[in-house]
UniProtKB/TrEMBL annotation, chain A:
Component of the 7-subunit TFIIH core complex composed of XPB, XPD, TFB1/GTF2H1, GTF2H2/P44, TFB4/GTF2H3, TFB2/GTF2H4 and TFB5/GTF2H5, which is active in NER. The core complex associates with the 3-subunit CDK-activating kinase (CAK) module composed of CYCH1/cyclin H1, CDKD and MAT1/At4g30820 to form the 10-subunit holoenzyme (holo-TFIIH) active in transcription. Belongs to the TFB4 family. Pfam families: Tfb4. GO terms for cellular component: transcription factor TFIIH core complex; transcription factor TFIIH holo complex. The keyword Transcription applies. Its main location: nucleus. The keyword Transcription applies. It comes from the Eukaryota. It is found in: Nucleus. It comes from Cardamine amara subsp. amara. GO terms for biological process: nucleotide-excision repair. One of its GO terms (molecular function) is zinc ion binding. This is General transcription and DNA repair factor IIH subunit TFB4. Component of the general transcription and DNA repair factor IIH (TFIIH) core complex, which is involved in general and transcription-coupled nucleotide excision repair (NER) of damaged DNA and, when complexed to CAK, in RNA transcription by RNA polymerase II. In NER, TFIIH acts by opening DNA around the lesion to allow the excision of the damaged oligonucleotide and its replacement by a new DNA fragment. In transcription, TFIIH has an essential role in transcription initiation.
UniProtKB/TrEMBL annotation, chain B:
GO terms for molecular function: zinc ion binding. This is General transcription factor IIH subunit. Keywords: DNA damage, DNA repair, Metal-binding, Nucleus, Transcription, Transcription regulation, Zinc, Zinc-finger. Residues 363-409 form the RING-type domain. The lineage of its organism: Eukaryota, Viridiplantae, Streptophyta, Embryophyta, Tracheophyta. Residues 13-25 have a biased composition (Acidic residues). One of its GO terms (cellular component) is transcription factor TFIIH holo complex. It comes from Cardamine amara subsp. amara. The keyword Transcription applies.
Length: 299, 422
């Protein structure tokens, strides 16, 4: 996919919407602790805001049972703080994040969690919220920073979110907002790879989580205008093959129902999704058959 | 000040203002051309205020949404997702009229280009063909195909308006083409008609009956005035007839045809279509591509059946004829199958209850404040399922572009819901 054409407003001013994965089921299985991870991320956010005076940062937390806005650098209330050693800049961020994680944990306890379900976070929810915020920025007039979304995700893809995530990706593509993704989990995330490929963003899976700050600042801190001059990781083998609805295996040739577009790997008589019977015309063919029968005694 | 006036096709500008236009400054043009006094209205105390466009826009949008949801009536209506659409453009001498600036022809071409792009965006598996009517004869500009660039190039190639217009010839030609289309596809015709009459070689009523029997859904957008024959055609075949009053209206009417129309179940036979999902060719691999017949390195796709290389998706493999798509193309159409319910308007007076006070300070999507002037709650909407509040602009964005409710997506669903279980 061709790289995103930048809108010619302010040259290298950017608005970074960071989607932070706070899924407790994922964070209990990693080598790096959440607080170490946060220190990398906060240093990165400082770096981004230091690159240009007009840069803005918005942080949205992707939890297990809910999503919420954590920090907005352009709102005035986040600039007050007592500043006891921790820069006043992020004290409100940390407070809100703690509140969010506690609330998320309470909500997760209320719904009984089944252990065999894939522990995925609500990526579609935070992507939708990010896009609504970016749409609001576009509405504010001609002079606005160039927005982009950065997903810091470690949880696995939840297959029930497929349609919602694809809708968000297509909407981002239309708005010309690239979705960068940094995947810190163990397996690969097909959603994030497709998101970055379709919207023209960068996808990267860091090899060593100890050096996360270095990956973040060298790859994800560049604004959209400068990306034309910087050599960023190229997309490697994005798999666009579909999986069949009957067995969930990836296929490279299949059959599509013309009514509901469900994918099957073998020929069926009836679509299991929409119930349409294949190859049969809905119009009654009985009348033509009886006409033929009536003709033969006459001749 | 330049005195040159543009003449198109020998037609002369009838505005006499142009003759007096010499010597007026740029600032005066706002009064001569734009009529800026029309953008003002009086409020209740008699003071002048600029027109509040956002409220009007939102009211229009909600009316449209109500009509659509009333039509769907809560049940999941089948939509024709695989469409074969012919766009018939009338290039008779009526298209050279200048009531649409600069001429009807230019305006039609511009909006049809935008429509073609929007159409392929919303219906990636469908195909478009272009037909023009000139001198009473219908010509095929492009055959049915899935690449927007080919169609736009052919359309912009020759823009000239000549002769009479013939509706019957156009319908005959389109009927001939669409009869060769597979039976699972929905056959549609969109006619952009500027003339006020039609010069036909035979009985147009017979042609209309023929189209009706072949299940062609014909819609007409008129640019001049309402005509009985167009209305009759649309009523017989189940299409939409509308007449554009100005350029903006024409664009809206055209874009209304981009999303798939509700499918009449008898029109298309459900069928299993064999499709291939090609893998991306490895970086640095060299092959001769089958569409351009030249050597290409790297980016491209390989047909899974015959291993031929193609450059772009979706397409039909030129060697073995297999339709090649990628899973995002199919995913583009899923929001037509799973639409989200419209949000409910929150009446301003009753909104001081606890729920509103707790959740309703800021829009859930964009965090914009929902408190209007003077600390009174401003207009907002709420989702029935997740009960979150949204501002009016998010409402429009969510329903027209995003197709996801952020509130519903931010709730954890305990059971793993399969894709089609909604």
């Amino acid at each position: 996919m061709a790289s995103v054409a930048s809108k010619l407003y302010s040259d290298d001013v950017s608005l970074l919407v960071l989607l932070l994965d706070t899924n407790p089921f994922f964070w209990s299985t990693t080598s790096i602790t959440f607080s170490q991870f946060l220190s990398h991320v906060l240093a990165f956010l400082n770096a981004v805001m230091g690159l240009n005076q007009l840069n803005q940062v918005v942080v949205i937390a992707t939890g297990y049972s809910s999503c919420d806005y954590i920090y907005d650098s352009s709102s005035t209330s986040s600039n007050h703080g007592t500043g006891n050693g921790m820069p006043a800049l992020f004290s409100s961020l940390l407070e809100k994040l703690e509140d969010f994680v506690t609330k998320d944990e309470e909500l997760s306890k209320e719904k009984n969690v089944s252990k065999d379900r894939v522990a995925s976070s609500l990526l579609s929810g935070s992507l939708s919220m990010a896009l609504c915020y970016i749409q609001r920025v576009f509405r504010s007039g001609h002079l606005h920073p160039q927005p982009r979304i950065l997903c810091l995700q470690g949880s696995q893809d939840g297959p029930e979110q497929y349609v919602a995530v694809m809708n968000s990706i297509f909407s981002a593509q239309r708005l010309m907002v690239p979705i960068d993704s940094c995947y810190i989990g163990t397996q690969n995330s097909a959603f994030l790879q497709q998101a970055s490929y379709i919207t023209g963003g960068v996808h990267h899976k860091p090899q060593q989580l100890d050096g996360l700050f270095q990956y973040l600042t060298t790859i994800f801190a560049t604004d959209l205008h400068s990306r034309g001059f910087v050599q960023l990781p190229k997309p490697v083998g994005v798999d666009f093959r579909a999986s069949c609805f009957c067995h969930k295996k990836t296929i490279d040739m299949g059959y599509i129902c013309s009514v509901c577009l469900s994918i099957f790997c073998e020929h069926h008589k009836k679509c299991t999704t929409c119930g349409s019977v294949f190859g049969q015309s809905k119009l009654d063919d009985v009348s033509s058959v009886s006409d033929k029968k009536r003709k033969s005694p006459d001749t | 000040m330049s005195n040159q006036k543009k003449r198109l096709n020998g037609g002369e500008r009838e505005d006499e203002d142009e003759d007096d236009a010499e010597g007026i400054g740029e600032w005066e043009r706002a009064y001569v051309d734009d009529r800026s006094w029309e953008a003002l209205q009086e409020d209740e105390s008699g003071l002048l205020r600029p027109i509040d466009n956002s409220a009007i826009y939102h009211a229009q949008y909600r009316r449209r949404l109500r009509m659509l949801s009333a039509a769907a009536a809560g049940t999941r209506i089948q939509k024709g997702l695989i469409r074969y659409l012919y766009i018939v453009i009338d290039f008779s001498r009526a298209a050279a009229e200048m009531d649409f600036r600069p001429s009807r022809m230019a305006v039609m071409a511009k909006h049809v280009e935008a429509f073609i792009r929007e159409f392929f965006d919303q219906n990636p598996l469908s195909q478009i063909g272009l037909v023009s009517i000139k001198n009473g004869v219908a010509h095929t500009l492009t055959d049915l195909g899935g690449s927007p660039e080919t169609h736009i190039k052919a359309l912009m190639g020759k823009l000239e308006a000549l002769g009479d217009s013939s509706l019957q010839n156009a319908l005959e030609l389109v009927h001939e083409h669409l009869n060769q289309v597979p039976s699972y596809g929905h056959r549609e015709v969109l006619i952009l008609y500027s003339a006020l009459c039609t010069c036909d070689p035979g009985d147009i009523m017979e042609t209309i009956q023929k189209c009706k029997k072949s299940k062609l859904r014909c819609s007409v957008i008129g640019l001049s005035a309402e005509m009985f024959i167009c209305k009759h055609l649309c009523q017989e075949t189940g299409g939409l007839y509308s007449v554009a009053v100005d350029e903006v209206h024409l664009k809206d009417l055209l874009l209304e045809h981009a999303p798939p129309p509700p499918a009449i179940a008898e029109f298309a036979i459900a069928n299993l279509i064999k499709m291939g999902f090609p893998q991306r060719a490895a970086e640095g691999s060299m092959a001769i591509c089958s569409c351009h017949k030249e050597v290409k390195i790297g980016a491209g796709y390989m047909c899974p059946r015959c291993k031929a290389r193609v450059c772009d998706l979706p397409t039909e493999c030129t060697i073995c004829g297999l339709t090649l798509v990628s899973s995002p193309h199919l995913a583009r159409s899923y929001h037509h199958l799973f639409p989200i319910a419209p949000f409910d308007e929150v009446p301003a007076l009753s909104s001081l209850n606890d729920n509103r006070r707790k959740l309703g300070k800021n829009c859930f999507g964009c965090q914009q404040s929902l408190i209007g002037t003077g600390n009174k709650p401003g207009p907002c909407v709420t989702c029935r399922k997740c009960k979150h509040f949204f501002c009016l602009d998010c409402d429009i964005y969510i329903h027209e572009s995003l197709h996801n409710c952020p509130g519903c997506e931010s709730i954890h669903r305990p059971k793993s819901v399969s894709l089609m279980e909604e």
